[in-house]
Every structure is written in C-alpha cells, then in structure tokens.
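quick q for whoever's on today - can somebody do inverse folding on this one?? i tried earlier but teh output was garbage lol. tokens:
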C-alpha cells in the first residue's frame, strides 16, 4: 500500500520558519520525483517545489529564495524547509510523487495545514 504521510505543519508567525516532512512507503522512493503542492482556501492547487530523481529542483516564483526542497532516499523522506514565511503562505501542504514517465503526480498525501499569522 502506497502511503505519503506529511508532518510538521502548524501555526507560525510571519517571518518565521517551519520544516515539513513527508515519509513515503509502498513504492520505490528513489525512482520517483517528489513535490510539495499547496492549496489555500478558495484557490487552485499550486506546485510549490519539485525534486527529481537526479536532484534537480524546481520552485514556484512565489517561494524562490525562501523555501528549500530536499530528499533523503535512505529514509524515504522528502522535506520542505520554509523560511521567511508570509501570511500568503497559509495553505494545506500536500506531498506528491511522480514516476519518470508521468507528467502528473501519481500519489498524494493527506496534507498538513500551515497557518502564518501573528
């Protein structure tokens, strides 16, 4: 059974930092690109960051220079380090996995809420 389990969400003040983790199981983690996707209330899902099997990274313009995606294939875990958080970063953050041949994400986690507020 494929599982993607996110953790690390919560309430954080503007300017603060948070690290999200996503533990994967049930598939060959090292063979999949991994991503973080967020959805704010009333808005479309937004691809925040993606890291492919070779380590190449993509970031949305809205988070460049503030967020860092990384992966640990030995632990089957992908991370999202979020710094200089803004209220507009408030959203449910989902972990997703994409195999080499797919242009869309095959597997999704249940999401973790991040709220940026004073």
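ok took a stab at it. sequence:
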């Amino acid at each position: 059974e494929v599982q993607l389990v996110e953790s690390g969400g919560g309430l954080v003040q503007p300017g603060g930092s948070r690290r999200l983790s996503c533990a994967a199981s049930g598939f060959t983690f090292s063979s999949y690109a991994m991503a973080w996707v967020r959805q704010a209330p009333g808005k479309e899902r937004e691809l925040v960051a993606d890291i492919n099997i070779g380590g190449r990274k993509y970031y949305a313009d809205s988070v460049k220079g503030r967020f860092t995606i990384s992966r640990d294939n030995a632990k089957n875990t992908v991370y999202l380090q979020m710094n200089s958080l803004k209220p507009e970063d408030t959203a449910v953050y989902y972990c997703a996995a994409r195999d080499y041949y797919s242009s869309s994400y095959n597997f999704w986690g249940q999401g973790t809420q991040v709220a940026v507020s004073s």
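fwiw The first strand starts at residue 3 and ends at 7. also The chain has no helices and eleven strands. so keep that in mind when u check it
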